[in-house]
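Appendix C reproduces, verbatim, an entry submitted by the partner laboratory led by Prof. M.T., so that reviewers can inspect both the input and the predicted structure.
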Amino acid sequence: MMETRTEAVSPIVVPQVGGSMEDHGFSPCEGGVCAAAGIKAAGVHAGFRKDPNRLDLALVAADEPCVCAATFTTNRFCAAPVQVSRPRAAKGRAKAVILNSGNANAATGDAGIEVALASSKIVAEALGCSDDEILVASTGVIGVQLPLAPYTEGVPMAVSKLAGTAEAAHDAACAVMTTDTHSKEVSVAGELPIGEDGAAVTVHVGGFVKGSGMIQPNMATMLCVLSTDAPLDAEAAHAALLAAVKTTFNHVTVDSDTSTNDSAFLLATGAAGGETITCDSAAYAAIAAAIHGVCESLARMIAADGEGATKLVTVDVVNAASQEDADTAAFAIANSPLVKCAIFGHDANWGRIAAAAGKCGVQFDQYACDIDLMGVPVLRSGLPLPMDEDEMLRRFEEPAIDIVMSLGAGSFCSRVWTCDLTHEYVTINGDYRT
């Protein structure tokens, strides 16, 4: 019979990949999506929802048409606004993003496309720009025709309230919420050497996101609007956004379901001034790190606010044989209902973590595996370590739970954010339409 290990051991070291935004001198600031110069926002009640006290239409607009980039759901059952916005965003310039909650405008056929097009036309006329400079997004119930009337009434109201203030940014963030329990906003500021003769120029990155269910992967039921006043060209904006999304929003899972409406937009006004930043510019790494940092903060907020969640769970898989193996094992652990239920029940059941990794198809030697739970080594070389149950219960009182598993098979790693699985999750999703 195998015996437990008893010698003192150190926690697993999780590699830090790339530089953080803090390493590049960026720090939090006020303003949300309006932190960037040249960006205004508004959130109003237009009538998509019955509750008159609930905001349901958000507008984020640049003072002038500017560089834009976007990523969208990979779900083949994609919604009408995704079909309309994808080719427009590919042109690399936009004036505004209009977003509604309460109705996803998905599975609505040609009529849904017509409404998405008509809504953008209403916004374009109000802002004095071309229709194809307006990006559209929707979230809410699938399979219900989206009415145009709320746009007719709500867009002029939203345009009249456009402001570059933190309050306006907050209203926009609130207007896209569905089952979110709170708005999710982040903004940062830092200096880039892009002025004359390399002088420092202060730039900002900010944004908001909505999402708390049907999350995994490729953003799922997630709408995100980011902005920066850094002078990015279109190629650099797209590269920075895509790189950030791949390792942040695409590494969030609440329930392993992928939605029909995922959209993340980045507007880059260039209003901070300075030399244009390309992918080859010395300043690119810093602004890309800032965009990544904002996305990571927002991604963590999504996981922490997962439907019914009581814990933010971070899963790190390290020492995998390939990136695909690392990602597969990390998502297997993060999506395991047994792992998620154990965390909700404050049960330090590392066996469920091992079992989730063991069934996912990744090849590894179980006797090369280590597991840490909440910073405590619980498995080494495939054998359990003594565990103080009272100490583990104390650690479960923290709002954030960390799981680290080493596969002992290589040098690749992956981080995924998730949450626990609670009674409230079933209640929320059982009553979503009714």
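The chain has two domains: 27-304, 312-430. Additional entries are available on request from the coordinating office.
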